[in-house]
Amino acid sequence: MLQNLWEWLLSRVFGEGMASGVAVRGTEFLGKEISQAVHREDQEVTRVRLRAGESYTVVARPPATRRERKLAKSERSLNRKFEALNRPTKSQLRSARKLSRAQRRIGPATPVSKRGRKRAQKEAALGRRFDQKMRPSKQQLKVARELTATTNQLDASRAVSLQLARRKNRIRRRRTKVTVYD
Asked: Where in the chain are the domains?
């Protein structure tokens, strides 16, 4: 009934003919899309199979406070910076290739021969140089410390806000009993 009234109203607004039919179908399509966007179906988060005596608790986190948003933004920024600093540099890659080549060459050589000893010495020197190049810089260590501190502060802040929300929304009724039958 309502659908017929809607079609009649749209035909009155747009008139008769092919263009009005297209306009009616277009407005109906847009109406359906809008209603689907507004009235979304429930989304399944997880499936849990409970046994007798088990319980399952779902905790929804309260909205982030200004401090949490600021800390989260800082954490994302530090994370990007940390990842950028930890990308291997050209000299580190070059040193790794040289060390790999030296280790491949040392394999077939006998360790007692002159050539074998020379290759072993070269491999040891390249290994020390590689270790030196891979040592984290002061800036990397500083950013890692800042990132750890920021993450800890953010986790603590989120825990406090969750605790406050639990305390604020405490329900004064008996817990519902859930019976699970297998």
From this structure: 2-31, 67-168
Helix (H) or strand (E) holding 127: helix 114-134
Q: Phi and psi for 135 in degrees, rounded to 5? A: -65, 130
The single-letter code of the amino acid at 78 is L
CA 78, CA 148: separation in Å to the nearest integer? 10
From CA 59, how far away is CA 135, in angstroms rounded?
43
Taking the alpha carbons at both ends of the chain, their separation in whole angstroms is 46
Q: How many whole angstroms separate alpha carbon 7 and alpha carbon 33?
A: 17
Q: Give the up-direction half-sphere exposure of residue 178: CA atoms within 13 A in the CB hemisphere.
A: 10
User: Quick one: how far is CA 83 from the chain centroid?
Assistant: 15
What is the enclosing helix (H) or strand (E) of 18? Answer: helix 18-38
Q: Kindly report, residue by residue over 96-124, the tens digit of the pLDDT.
A: 999 999 988 887 767 788 888 898 899 99
Residue with tokens 């802040």: 157
Output the pTM of the full model: 0.57
Place of tokens 């277009």: 26
